[in-house]
Amino acid sequence: MKAAHHPAGRDTDVIEGTSRNVQWPNCLFLLILRICSALKYGREKLIRRVFLLIIGTLPGNLGAQPADQVHAVQNIFHPLSKPAEILDDTARLVLLICLVIFLIVGGLLLYSVVRFRHRGAEDDTSEPSQVYGSNAIELAWTIPPILIVIVLVLITARTVGEISNPQFSKNVVQLRVIGHRFWWELQYPDYGVTAANEIHVPVSYLPSTPRPIQMTLDSADVAHGFWVPELNGKLWVVPNHRNMMWIQPSVLGIYLGNCTVLCGDQHANMLIRVIVEPPEDFEKWIAGQKAPAVADPSVEDGRREFIENSCGTCHQIAGTPGANGVFGPDLTHFMSRQTLGSGVADNNDENLRSWLRDPQVLKPGCLMPNMKLDDKEVDLIFAYLKTLK
Ligand code: CUA
Fold it and tell me: CATH number for the domain including 75?
């Protein structure tokens, strides 16, 4: 039960425990990364060397940073991936322009309030000079605002264009995300892999060798929303209409996201976990997911209970007769996941047993019913699931 109040990876001590001492070198590294990517020097060998040098020498930097660091505080002002960075740059530029306007207007206002305040007896009561119809003033407050608006339109249009018409290289990773109440189905069509809730993607350390992830968003039922703030803006996931987004994360770690459209009882626990890992780890993960389900003869009884209790009508376990459902998450490699119930609890023995006994305890209102398993059945199915690595 404890886990229900602290959905996995969202405890504040997670981030404090792992990231405090690696914060500033990361910032420095990201700064350099972003300056170089902005200058489009990514392909220059020299810059690449400098990158590698920095990766190699800074303690706690990207290269040495643990891949299991949880970016638990979701922060739009801390972008660590391509579209989020572009959005952040635009937002800051627009904010800066608005700040300058605010200071000018506010300054003039303040000046007028002080300069022309009521002074009692010494007040000059004569009529102030009349400027009605002054062409100079009319032009001054018409032309500059129009120019400012045009600049803002151009900045926005460029950002929209850059994000919605990306030029992908051949090594883009295709990912299909399908929202269900209350979990996420994930398909990697190029690899023939189906997973759930935890999105594994390769990191793009260097701007010159990007490995973007192109995502299509579909819904199997109602409207959902997909949002991982440090990677990209939020996007609707609607039935019968496919939306597209892409990400290109530049820092290792685990990124948390949420469903952003109220979709039912467990909307708040329809959590997203993006695991950004080194390319070789990603390939290893893909290979693991492609492998056939482990068929351990010692848990034959558990497999039988799984089928007999109709778990297989909702859950697929590849290559297992009777387990080909698509209503719930694919369990072929269930034990490779860090969490249960779309991020609601850590995937550990205690929580897994609790889930098997009654999923409504950890995730009240989720669409998996209490199957009323007795202790023996729970033990057998538990033992079987534990072999699905
Ligand atoms: Cu799905 Cu809210």
Answer: 2.60.40.420
